[in-house]
UniProtKB/TrEMBL annotation:
Entry annotated with the keyword Signal: yes
Signal peptide: 1-31
Source domain of life: Bacteria
Keyword check for Signal: yes
InterPro entries in alphabetical order: CHP02001 (IPR010239)
Pfam families, alphabetized: Gcw_chp
UniProt entry keywords in alphabetical sequence: Signal
Protein name from the UniProt record: Uncharacterized protein (TIGR02001 family)
Length: 263
């Protein structure tokens, strides 16, 4: 996530791990088949890989308008509890200071989801830790960020609120910032297309740093776990605040695309 880096709904190893887990669970062991089937109903593992034209988070570019490689894995329990990790290549930290080397974002999260029968209503609560391994100069504000989140959904529509008890993505004195996200992912019923719409508002506890972002796009199911996404993204982020040290405005409107694979 890029906030004023000026003072600013997932890699191959995780996919390999998830594939190994999948292969191990798929190996037929006839004597244990009933137990394995019951276990599979309780525990679920998945992995994902993606190539995106730009890593955009809350409307802001994390990779300076360049392609990003992303991937992660997820575990979920039949009770509703889940854990996961998601990773992406980034460049905003290196762009912010010549002595910073931090090319990867690693996200770790866990929470609980619950669906209220066939009513269409659901809830999701959890915690998300953004971690940026690398080397930083002395007195550089850590970009590592913790957020608590809670969401409620009805059918294809979700409203989510995220709150940061820590500084927000390396911005000093930004504790208690929050983000509100209203999203809809509506299957269109033809050609395997899903309509994706989103509007969000990032409140930052620093003058002139708050902004809104929005998105409208389509996702095409290509089969066999592949999906192609195309969207228009934009923000009203203050250009004076969200321009990188290299002179690139990170909130500019763009047409964005990605190719992803789930396992």
């Amino acid at each position: 996530m890029t906030l004023p880096r000026i003072s600013a709904g997932r890699h191959a190893a995780t996919a390999a791990l998830a594939a190994a887990v999948w292969l191990a669970s798929a190996t037929p062991v006839l004597a244990q088949a009933p137990a394995d089937a019951a276990d599979a109903a309780v525990h679920s593992f998945s992995a994902n890989l993606a190539l995106a034209s730009d890593y955009r988070y809350r409307g802001l570019s994390q990779s300076s308008g360049r392609p990003a490689i992303q991937g992660g894995f997820d575990y979920s329990h039949a009770s509703g509890f889940y854990l996961g990790n998601w990773n992406s290549s980034i460049s905003w930290l290196g762009d912010s200071h010549p002595d910073v080397s931090a090319p990867i974002e690693m996200d770790f999260y866990g929470g609980y989801r619950h669906a209220f029968g066939d009513s269409g209503w659901s809830t999701d609560v959890g915690v998300l830790q953004y971690y940026y391994p690398g080397s930083y100069p002395d007195r550089y504000t850590s970009p590592d960020t913790t957020e608590l989140y809670a969401g409620i959904g009805y059918g294809p529509v979700t409203l989510k609120y995220s709150y940061a008890p820590t500084n927000l993505f390396g911005l000093a004195d930004s504790r208690h910032s929050w983000y509100a996200d209203l999203s809809a992912n509506v299957p269109l019923g033809f050609w395997g297309l899903t309509l994706n719409a989103h509007v969000g508002y990032q409140k930052v506890q620093v003058a002139e740093a708050s902004y809104a972002d929005w998105k409208l796009g389509l996702t095409k199911d290509l089969g066999h776990g592949f999906a192609l996404a195309l969207a228009y993204l934009d923000t009203n982020a203050d250009r004076a605040v969200y321009t990188s040290a290299k002179g690139r405005y990170l909130g500019r409107a763009t047409v964005w695309g990605s190719l992803s694979k789930t396992f």
